[in-house]
Amino acid sequence: MFGAHHHAPQLLGSRIGDELARLGYTIAASTVWEILHAAGIDPAPRRVGPTWRQFLTAQAHAIIACDFLVVETVLLKRLYVLVFIEHGTRRLHLGGVTAHPTGAWAVQQARNLAIDLGERVDTLLFLIHDRDPLFTTAFAEVFKADGLRIITTLPRARRMNAICERVIGTLRRELLDRTLLLGERHQTMVLSEYLIHYNRHRPHQSRQQRPPDIETQPTRDAPGPVDLRRIRRKCVVKGMISEYHHAA
Hints:
This protein is α/β, with parallel strands linked by helices. The protein folds into 2 domains: 7-38, no CATH class; 52-207, Nucleotidyltransferase, domain 5 (2-Layer Sandwich), CATH 3.30.420.10. Helices cover 37% and strands 19% of the residues. The protein contains 7 helices and 7 strands. The protein has helices spanning 2-22, 29-38, 52-58, 103-117, 137-144, 162-174, 184-200, and strands at residues 63-72, 78-86, 92-98, 126-129, 149-152, 231-236, 241-246. It is elongated. The N and C termini lie far apart (58 Å). Residues 1-7 have low confidence and may be disordered.
């Protein structure tokens, strides 16, 4: 950054000199800079601020994001699912499932989420979502009432909501692409069961292999080989997913 600041006068003089040359006036960049400096005109300070990645990392504890995903049922009926994810804990919330999404429906899901979050909503500062027209002004007002600032992603900039996009990919790979869904009620039931697994058991690399609802890893009394005879397998989400636990 210091190097960039050092070369700023030369760059400014060069750019102005280039424009003057196009008009037929050849003036050295150093001469342009001397004229500007004598007139008290210095280069504009370089903007310094965090990158988007740095912002997401620094504010993870205060960010919640949302997005829609589309699922086809066995009867070729299209359903829309609204999901929310808290960046800091990776806690996943099901907004709702519907075949006919509207702005009013999305607003109701936002209100339901605010109730479910309870006092935790006071720890959040930002909501990230894309420019889907279902995210109306009324939808934003639900969160603004709790003090959140709305951040709308740029068009075709999927990385701006990468964590939510990633969890949607997880939902598809681990659940939705492996399930024959019959309708709204069936999909809501399956997703609700999966959310219990996701929040209470599924390990996350960003949390040192801890699930969203678990603050610490379980510890064993003494180090040593794992006794597989004391590991129990539990099938969840209609037997599609296995969880493993130490025997009581």
